[in-house]
Amino acid sequence: MKILVQSEAFDLGAEVAALSQGRTDIGAIASFVGLARGMNDGSGVQAMTLEHYPGMTEKALARLVEEARSRWTLLDVTVIHRVGRLLPGDSIVLVVVVSRHRGEAFAACEYLMDALKTRAPFWKKEETQEGERWVEARASDDAAAARWIEP
Amino acid sequence: MKLHVLYFARLRERFGVAEETLDFTGATAADLISQLQARGGVWAEELAAGRAFRVAVNQDIVALDAAVPDQAEVAIFPPVTGG
What we know:
- The complex is a heterodimer of chains A (151) and B (83).
- With 151 residues, chain A is α+β, with helices and mostly antiparallel strands.
- Chain A is built from 4 helices and 9 strands; from the N terminus they run E-H-E-E-E-H-E-E-E-H-E-E-H.
- In chain A, the strands form 2 sheets. In chain A, strands 3, 4, 6, 8 and 9 form a 5-stranded antiparallel β-sheet that branches. A 4-stranded mixed β-sheet of chain A has the order 1-5-7-2, with helices on both faces.
- Chain A is globular.
- The longest helix of chain B has 9 residues.
- Chains A and B meet through strand 4, helix 2, helix 3 and strand 8 of A and loops of B.
């Protein structure tokens, strides 16, 4: 398991290679990369700054990965989330899940992103023509995370 | 008892403070919120019933009825928007 919170960009190919190198038990690799968009809620976004809660962030991400590993049989997971000032088109977040079969990899990757969106302590502030604004949490993100709650 | 309280993002900006150490006589996260609301102004406004905010005690998000131990690190912040 690798969890990083960093300002630097990441390389999807390098992260996938690091997870799969030298192994022959992996049958599936699912990855997700989230990017900063240049348009949000009808306004052009020139840049965004991602703030986080140092200490808790890493702990919260590790807990989400542990939850995913308890639900699905996973061989390894990498989560990288960037902080600081990002421009449209920049990558924000990376999740890579490796497993024996695709079902686990797809499901765990989507679960981790849905859980991260509602439970990892990051906040986005956008710079727009109208000034700076904090991004508001979306009800659709809560709904996406709620899909995974087991009865 | 003493608590170390942190504020993040929009709430940090609205309150004009990133962290503080304060004396706490209550028992739960809700008691701490009441104590901060009593400061009035932006504190009463942002922490009013029905406003969306989260509370973490020792770096775990908790419900408002959660106990707050002595010397705890408590964080109050808006709903998260990463990813």
